[in-house]
Amino acid sequence: MSAPSLFGSRDERIVEPRSLLSSIGEVAYSWDIGADTLSWGPNAAEVLGPVPAAVLQRGLSFAGLVEPGSGRSRYDAIFSSGGHDFGDGAVYRTRYAADLAGRKMWIEDAGRWFAGIDGRPSRARGVLRLERAVRPEELSATDTDLCDRHVLVERVDEALAEHLPAERTVVVLIAAIGELARLNGDFGHEGTEEIIEEVRQRLHSVMRRRDQLMHYSGNRFAILLSGCPANQIEAAAQRFIKAVARSAVETSRGIALARLRVGAAIAPDLSRHGSVLVKAAENALAGAEAAGLDNAVIARRSAAGEAGGAAPRLDLEAVAALNERKVRLAFQPVVAAKGRALAFNEALLRVERPQGGFLAAAELVPLLERRGLVNLFDHRVLELAMAHLTERQDAVLSINVSPRTLAEADWIDGFEASARANPIAVKRLIVEVTETATIEDPGRMAKLLTRIKQRGARVAIDDFGAGHTSLRHLRAFPIDILKLDGAFTQNLRRSTDDRFFVRTLLELAHHLGVETVAEWVDDELQASMLCDWGVTYLQGHLIGKAELAEPDLQENNPPLRAAG
C-alpha cells in the first residue's frame, strides 16, 4: 500500500485520515441489516482489493467470502452476541479468514449493532481490519461440518429446489445451545467445544436419513426436515430437544447440563426462499430464547418480514406521533475529559408508540429518510431543543440533522427564523452533521454550515474518521467540534493500529484548532488514554446513557402536519 500523504509544514506527523486508514489496513462500514445493504468507507478498494462491487453491497454476500470453519461471520457474531441495545448499541467482535479476490487474509471485524423496533439487530457500524495473510495449514484442519450463514442459505435453497416441485414440505429448524456464555465461563473454551461436539452427535443420532444437520455460528445448528407436515414440527423439535437434555455432558473440565432452544419455519407455507426461511427461523429462535421455552417457536408469516406491513404501519405511527405531540428528546451527557464536568447533552430522537414504548431510532430514522418524512422530525427536534434552551438558560444541547434534511432549503430557513426569535438560546446550540453528509457537494455544505455559524450556533462533524472528508474540505468548513467515530475509539484497548489512528485524528483536530468528542467510551482505561492524548470531551456508557427529557417541553409546540 502507498505511504500516507503528509500535509502541512507545522506538524509532519499528521496525515490524511483516508491514507492512514489504508496504510494500516482498516476500512469503516455501515450495515442496514434489514435491507442487507453495506456502505463502506471511501478506501474500501484500497484495503479489500478487487472484490466485486455486488459482493461488497450485501452483508450476506460479503459473509460468503468467509472461509468455512475459520470463525464467525459478522452476521453470526451480531446475532449470537447475546447483547442488548439500550439505546447506545451493543458491542460485537469476531475474527475470520476471508478470500478477497484470491487473497486469503485474516480479518478482525468489530463494532456495535443497534436494535430495531422488535429489539433485534437492525443496523451496525464497525471497522474491518486486515491482519495478515492466511497460511495454508491454518485452514486445512477446519471442521467440515461447520458452515457459515451464506452456505446455510444456499443449502436451504438446494433443498427447496429438490423437494418443493415434488410437493414435499421443507422445515428449517434453527437450534441453539442455551446460556453458552455461562458455559464458556464455567468450563472454558476447550470444555465448551466438547459440549458443542457432544450436542452435535446427539442431534445426529436422532435424525432421519433424509434430514440434514449443519453446525454454524458457534452454538447454533440448522436442521432441514423434508416431508414434515406443519402439525408434526413440534414433535420433530421435541425429538432433538430431548436428545440433548437426556443426560449431563461429561467434559474434561467437569459435567455440564445442556439445553436446546428451537425456532422453526416451514416452506412453502411461509416462503419459497431460503434467506427468508432462515431469517424467520432465527427470529423464532430469538423468541424461544427470550422466553426460555422448552418447545419450538414456529414462525408465522408476519415473522418472516415479508411484504410491506411494517413500513406502512410505521409511516402511520410516525405521522400520528407528530400530530399527537409524541416526539420526545432523550439527553445523553457529554463531559469534559479533564474533570468530567458536564459540557453539553446530545439530544436524541425518541418517538412514542400508540401502544406504549418507543420506536427504535436505529430503524426509524433510515425508514423516515426513505419515506421522505425525516425533515418533519428534524424540524420538531429543532423546535424542542430551542424550547429547552430558552427555558433552561444554563443548558447546552447538540442536535443531529439528516443529510436529506440539509439538502432541502426549508430546514435552514426554519433554523434562521428560530435563531432570530431566540438569539441568546441559539448560542448554546450545536448542530451535528455526519461526515458523509459533507462529501456530495462540499461547496454547498460549506455555505450551509457558515449560515448556521453566523446565527451563533456551533457546528460539529459527527462520525468523523472514516476518511470521507479531505483536509482541504475540512479547512473550508466552519467547524467547532470533530466527533470521532466510535468504531475506532472502542477498540483502543486491543488494537495498536487504532490507538495510532485515533491519536493522529486528535493531532489533526489540534492542527485545525477545533475541539474533539470521543464517542463510545465504555471504560476508564479507554477514557484515560483519550484524556492523555488531548481529547476535549467524552461520551458513552461510562459517562451516562440517554435519558428522556421532561415531556412538558412539548406543550407550547403546536403539532406539525404532514403535507398531503
TrEMBL record:
Domain EAL: 311-560
Superkingdom, natural source: Bacteria
Pfam annotation, one family: EAL
Location of the GGDEF domain: 168-301
UniProt cross-references to NCBIfam families, sorted A to Z: GGDEF
Protein name: EAL domain-containing protein
Species per Swiss-Prot/TrEMBL record: Bosea vestrisii
